Amino acid sequence: MPSLIAFDLDDTLYKERDYVVSGRRAVAAALAPVAGVDAGILLEVMNNSDDAFETLHAALAGTPAAGVGIAEMVAIYRQHRPDIALTTGVAGTLTELRRRGNKLALITDGNHTRQHAKVRALGLDDFFGRHNVIVSDDIGSDKTTPAPFAAAERLATGMPHVYVGDNPAKDFHWPSVRGWQTIMLADAEGKNIHIQNIGGFPSVFKPQTVIDRFERLLQFQF
User: Alpha-carbon distance 31 to 73, whole Å?
Assistant: First the structure.
């Protein structure tokens, strides 16, 4: 039966670490001419730290870019045009799911500017349409609350609801409580930002089904 199938964005439709790399490159490129330092060196400074911008700010002391604050670096990061791509198999799978009569939506947490820039860079408007993209910053509530899922339900009343995500900390609890089918895309390569330690969560946070490849969604009866 055709369903509303809603998707997480980061580490579900593309790899979030690619966005991190893209954003750091943008910061390095913007500050290099100001600091008089090669962008590759600035990028290396950020990549070798868990606190990338704080470390970069400290490294710029004594250069003409010393006055550039962390808030300015974050703004460059958030406002840059992301150099990212959908994971292999995602575009074809979304196309086929929609061809079968399903309604597709996106539910993602994060900053308005950053998340919508990702959607544009990935060409996701072609699959979801602007009205079916729900960003937590736009509605004032994230996926640790029922609000984003309630908003998605209003997009397709009378249909079964499915959520596909990757993070057991927040992707599956509320949709499960609300009667959705929940599916987790396993991090087969260990490259996700958030570790998928399913065993460390109560049962209500766990997905009903785990798939090892995005294309496996085509095996479901929706």
Answer: 9
The contacts of residue 13 (CB under 8 Å, 6+ apart) are 7, 86, 87, 90, 122, 124
Among residues of the chain, what percentage have pLDDT more than 70? 100
Phi and psi angles of residue 124, each rounded to the nearest 5 degrees, phi first: -75, -15
- Domain of residue 122, residue span: 4-15+84-219
For residue 183, what are its two tokens? 């599916």
**Structural domain count of the chain:** 2
What angle (nearest 5°) sits at the alpha carbon of residue 218, between those of residues 213 and 222? 130
Query: Residue 194 above 90 pLDDT?
Result: no
User: Can you give the length of the chain in residues?
Assistant: 222
Handedness of CA 122, 127, 131, 134 (dihedral sign): negative
**Closest by CA position to 164, among listed 202, 129, 125, 216:** 216
Enter the tokens of residue 73. Answer: 């670096």
